[in-house]
Amino acid sequence: ALPAVTPAAPARAAVSALDFQNTMRKLWEDHITWTRLAIVAILDDRPEKDAAVQRLLQNQVDIGDAIKPYYGDAAGAQLATMLHDHITGAAAVLVAAKSGDQAQVQAASDAWYANGNDIAAFLNKANPNNWPLATLQDMMKMHLDTTLAEAVAHLKKDYAADIAAYDAVDEHILHMADALSSGIIAQFPDRFTAAPPAGQLAFHLAMRKLWEDHITWTRLAILDIFENDAETNATVQRLLQNQVDIGNAIKPYYGDAAGNQLAALLQDHITGAAALLMAAKSGDQAKLKTASDAWYANGNAIAAFLNKANPNAWPLATLQDMMKMHLDTTVAEATANLKGDYTADVAGYDAVHEHILHMADALSDGVIAEFPQQFGGPQVVGMPRTGQPAPDAWFWLIALIAGNVLLLAGRYLRRKPAA
């Protein structure tokens, strides 16, 4: 039986609706990232599996803590417990699947799906007006279905299907996170400030998703390369596709050529990272120094490119610092994994994740500031800093010149003596 959930009384100042949505998304993004890392580690019997599972279990505590300000400490603790069971149930399904014992697989699967329904019932009872039971049950089932498809594909070494399944898991979990955050905001409207205009919000969230893909697939590539895993090539190809996706995201604002150039710079960033990882794995210090120098030079080239595109919003020194921090934290993560220090490895990825979201926000804020008319802001007529005229700029410029010419001509004719 589920206990009654009593909404906590407002006890603090209102927070940004956008910040709350971001927080909920990050928590559930952590959920699926560490679930995937646990799946891979358990099924491939990797040495970091215990650290990955422990980090995943901590995430369930973090999700429970996130609802405590709204539903109370007891409700938050109960949700964390149910999510803990969700994770241990998933581990039981993986172990059964790996053993090939179909009866064990069926029993573990039944228990896992029953737990999903319990979580749906708990959330519905907390917020019945905004979280209908059937909707929550469908969302939980979809989460379990897509996660199971991912695990089965990995077990079968169908890496194309494995990667596609994770992308499906990711897409769905963000929809689920948004449903949960919007439900809380609707239930406690006095606890939140207004969200930004829809166009700004969508772009902001899209940029975060792209850069979270970047670090997720980078981490998976690090692990695959160090383990010489059969999935390495497929993982690296998915990571390279992400750089194309980031380039495509800026094309509506800076043009196709600029988007393609950024994608090329980012692909060099990935191939440079792979060279650095291989050098580190080999222990060849000369190769490591050469690869590291080239990688950091590429980071500065990316910073210079972005600064040239948007100098007012993206100062060069700020971009260089952000790129250096991204490279430094990624190196720390990879070094810890290579040394077998999995506690530091996990902490390293968390640092990478925290920083990349700050970087994504800086980039999206810069684009929005430069092109406010494309995000629900005031229409700006003139020459954007990309070097390309705004759609109406030439018309108004020619009209202004023509008007001045006619004005001067009129003055000349008025002053010219009659013949």
Spans with pLDDT under 50 lasting ≥5 residues?
A: 379-409
Helix content: over 70%
Radius of gyration: 26 Å
Coarse morphology: globular
The end-to-end distance, rounded to whole angstroms, is: 106 Å
What is the mean pLDDT? Answer: 89
Counting DSSP E segments of at least 2 residues, the number of strands comes to 2
Quick one: biggest sheet? 2 strands, parallel
- Work out the helix count: 13
- Spatially, the strands of the biggest sheet line up as 1-2
Secondary-structure element string: EHHHHHHEHHHHHHH
How much strand content do the residues show? under 5%
Structural class by helix and strand composition: mainly alpha
Describe, in plain words, how this protein is organized in 3D.
- It is a single chain.
- The protein is mostly helical.
- 80% of the residues lie in helices and 1% in strands.
- It is built from 13 helices and two strands.
- It has helices at 17-43, 49-71, 73-99, 102-126, 133-155, 159-187, 198-227, 232-254, 256-282, 285-309, 316-338, 342-370, 393-415, and strands spanning 15-16, 192-193.
- A two-stranded parallel ribbon has the order 1-2.
- Helix 3 (73-99) runs antiparallel to helix 4 (102-126) and helix 10 (285-309) runs antiparallel to helix 11.
- The protein is globular, with a radius of gyration of 26 Å.
- It starts with 14 loop residues before the first strand and ends with a helix.
